[in-house]
Amino acid sequence: MSIHERLNRKPRVLVYDIETSPHLVYTYELYNTSVRPDQIVEPSRLLCWAGKWVGGKRVQFYSEHHHDREVMIDALWHALDEADIVIGYNHKGFDNKHAMREFVTSGLGPPSPWQDVDLLKENRRLFKFASNRLGYVTDALGLPTKIENAAGLWLRVLQGDDQAWDQFKAYNVQDVRATEALAEWLWPFLRLPHAGLWTGQRRSCPACGGTDLTPMGKAYTKTASYARLLCSCGAWMKVLANGETRQV
User: Would you identify the CATH topology of the domain 3-189?
Assistant: First the structure.
């Protein structure tokens, strides 16, 4: 069952990924050096982004090469503004912050708030893979995985090479597909916004909103115990005194 089916088609869930340019700087050393702000020739910028609405088929893609920069940034702003839940891989520490810089320097206000599900943070919290890189984790789970960048691709992209941009687009789009596949696989494990916020059923499974729940004994804290349920999606939950469910 897909995330979209589990969530009863209620929240808007966006999976997205961005690619940025490196800083262009003057430097006297190649190793163990620091760069002062006055040595920056051109700061990092958003080159492109790809995003997919969970439940949809198409991955949308915008870039400074294929579109006007204003169009690219505006499209990202509107996608995040429409989202209830945003899924990414290290997107809270990277993608979101680069996006917000682009918005504020473009004179845009903040998009409407959303809930983040950062799969890198969840992997670090839950598991001990030998590497937490997206491609390593998806490979380990037998899922659709990343495309490796060809040598020199970034330089060719920055030079405006059309063929390089075709490869770069495929790389960005595949990152989104791999991230969505990983989210689907890990859904019962994740700390998620309660699905009942959108379905209106706070006594359903917090992860998927389903009601196919099996009693499975008790869940214990240091000072209390709660009825424990297992959903058919694989998520565990406890039942509060008011009958509402919470993840355990």
Answer: Nucleotidyltransferase; domain 5 (3.30.420)
Determine the Cα–Cα distance for residues 236 and 159; give it in Å rounded to an integer: 51
Residue 132, classed as helix, strand or coil, is coil
Nearest to 76 by CA among 53, 110, 55, 49: 49
Best CA proximity match to 18, nearest among 70, 93, 83: 93
CB 49 within 8 A of CB 16: yes
| Residue 229, helix vs strand vs coil | strand
For residue 139, give both structure tokens.
């490979």
Calculate the CA 83 to chain-centre distance.
Answer: 12
Task: Specify the residue for token string 């996006």.
Answer: 99
CA 36 from chain centre, in angstroms, equals 32
Assess contact for 17 and 89: CB atoms under 8 A.
Answer: yes
β-bridge pairing 115-118 and 85-88: parallel
Rounded to 5°, angle at Cα 87 from 228 and 64: 175
Q: What does the DSSP 8-state code read for residue 27?
A: -
183 Cα distance to chain centroid: 9
Beta strands 245-247; 236-239: pairing state: antiparallel
Give the residue-averaged pLDDT of 2-25.
Answer: 81
Q: How many CB atoms lie within 10 A of CB 137?
A: 24
- Whether pTM > 0.85 for this model: the answer is yes
Cα–Cα distance measured from residue 229 to residue 217, given in angstroms and rounded to the nearest whole number: 8
Residues of the chain with CATH 3.30.420.10: 3-189
**Residue 233: its H or E element:** none
Q: Is the pLDDT of residue 135 over 60?
A: yes
